[in-house]
Design brief:
It is built from eleven helices and twelve strands. By secondary structure, it is α/β, with parallel strands linked by helices. The structure holds adenosine-5'-triphosphate (ATP). Adenosine-5'-triphosphate (ATP) binds near residues 10, 11, 271, 281 and 284.
Amino acid sequence: MRLLVLPGDGIGPEITAASMPVLQAVSERFGLGLKIDEDVVGHESLKQHGVSVRPEVLEAARKVDGLVLGPTAAFEYKGEINPSMFFRKSLDLFANIRPARTYPGVKLRAGEFDLVVVRENTEGFYADRNMESGGSEMLVTKDMVISLRRITRHCCARIARAAFELAARRKKHVTAVHKANVLKRGDGLFLEECRKVAKDFPGVTMDEIIVDAMMAHAVRNPQRFDVIVTTNMFGDILSDLTSELSGSLGLGGSLNAGADHAMAQTAHGTAPDIAGKNVANPFSLVLSLSLLLAWHGRRKGLKAFEAASDAIEKAVEQAVAAREATADVGGSLGTRDTGAALANRLKA
Ligand code: ATP
């Protein structure tokens, strides 16, 4: 498997450097033959090349089996491309898979739970990606802005299918989160497609919850959820809540997947408040890499990749329980040592 690694900004380079020994350890133990190329995006690319993403990087991304993107500080580039949006849109990475589960040894905030948010990634309210060209926010007068939300049957159907396929491999329940009481047409269409896809999965049950009520249910009783499917912005917000409820944003792995490409990318951002201090938790990126290996294994029928992914998740669980981790999850190690200790655990 060939990977292209783009460390990004803020804590990105630190957590990426700490995660690479983990990849090497599983590559050797499970005979994965991982080949890792590295390039730059974001501030480093601006410094070296004068642009936030070079076209060659996209060409390289199309050729590899998986992309690894660290968090990027897109709002700082002013007029430059947001790499995260750029790869999601260019490679049609329509499904953003964001698992959230509690770990033994991490303080519980809402009891034990294990769920996955499946978020549509290519349309919705996201003005930077929902138009063929141009953005979908318009300055009508200097005091008035109109923002458009795009919802298509095609995108609703494929995200619903991704959610049901995942639920069929898990606890066999899907919750469709929507606001169809107000956004009657857009979210009505989303629900219609979820209900249609549900008919193809008789072994998976589905319920529907309005997004505002969902916030209360997620905090009160996250145990009741398995796979939660929703549109772009609701999924973005909800998955930060579920990730934090699980213990820390630093445990929030995330995969952006399409039909032909996938990109591991943490659910959290660049965390400028802790950048350069060697305290950031690398497990979010490690867990994202684990999702990428599992995606590749399922797609290519390569069991070793799925086994490597399971081993990483188990090792993270053991490391957290043993406090061989960063301070946000109760440990006392720095970023680098946390990655090195996890790699050693995986070699054993
Ligand atoms: P951005 O503007 O890039 O989104 P942010 O700081 O606004 O950055 P996040 O990066 O998502 O948003 O961080 C939110 C909070 O979670 C911050 O207090 C940050 O320090 C913490 N955090 C995020 N990622 C990690 C991590 N990997 N390890 C420890 N703490 C983290």
